[in-house]
Amino acid sequence: MRPGSTSAACAALIKRDLLLVWRRRGDALNPVLFAIMVASLFPFALGPEPEQLARIASGVILVALLLSGLLTLDALFRSDLEDGSLEQLVLAPQPLSLLLGCKILVHWLTTALPLIVVTPLLAQLLHLPENVLPVLLMTLLLSTPLLSLIGAMCVALTVGMRRSGMLLSLLVLPLYVPVLIFAAGACSAVQAGLPHTAPLLWLGAGLSLSLVLAPLASAAALKISLS
């Protein structure tokens, strides 16, 4: 890669963000621990009957992972704003949308991917049927990047505010609901023995559209927030 090129800038940004996450790896484990704690509370609240837990297992896992992702969402651009590197990204000669896409990728790798890895453990804890687990993993692989892309747009709008946690949740949660509905619908269809490809196709379509539009919208929102 030629120094100063777009590919070199993206590689350097990804390396920097991964290094920062590694230095704060204790904080990076918080979403995983939160998801495990939330999922483990349901057997205590509803009882240990496997049939009852199996009916709600996929929905519980999806909600636990959605809420876990919110824990780190506000920090997506916050540290860059505090150390001044966010303004440098805006002034960089490379496309801002592409640089923000790299940051969103790192956020997904360090937040959502560990949650997907522990999903089989949560499935065993809640007695999820074995035939539902592959579909649940597929929905997570489609929905978690989509949630990161949607969340990045909302974070870019609120990054300039001092206390944006509650406002960010109010902006993000209504946009997360359709993703949750399609993901849970696919798992419920499998559990009921019905076709489940339609919700997966909708999630794939939403992800494809967001991959193109979300970085552009995040870049525009970030410029507005910093202006």
UniProtKB/TrEMBL annotation:
It is a multi-pass membrane protein. The gene is ccmB. It comes from the Bacteria. Belongs to the CcmB/CycW/HelB family. The chain crosses the membrane at residues 28-47, 53-77, 98-123, 135-159, 171-194, 200-222. One of its GO terms (biological process) is cytochrome c biosynthetic process. GO terms for molecular function: heme transmembrane transporter activity. NCBIfam families: ccmB. This is Heme exporter protein B. Keywords: Cell inner membrane, Cell membrane, Cytochrome c-type biogenesis, Membrane, Transmembrane, Transmembrane helix, Transport. It comes from Pseudolysobacter antarcticus. Required for the export of heme to the periplasm for the biogenesis of c-type cytochromes. The keyword Repressor does not apply. One of its GO terms (cellular component) is plasma membrane. It is found in: Cell inner membrane. Pfam families: CcmB.
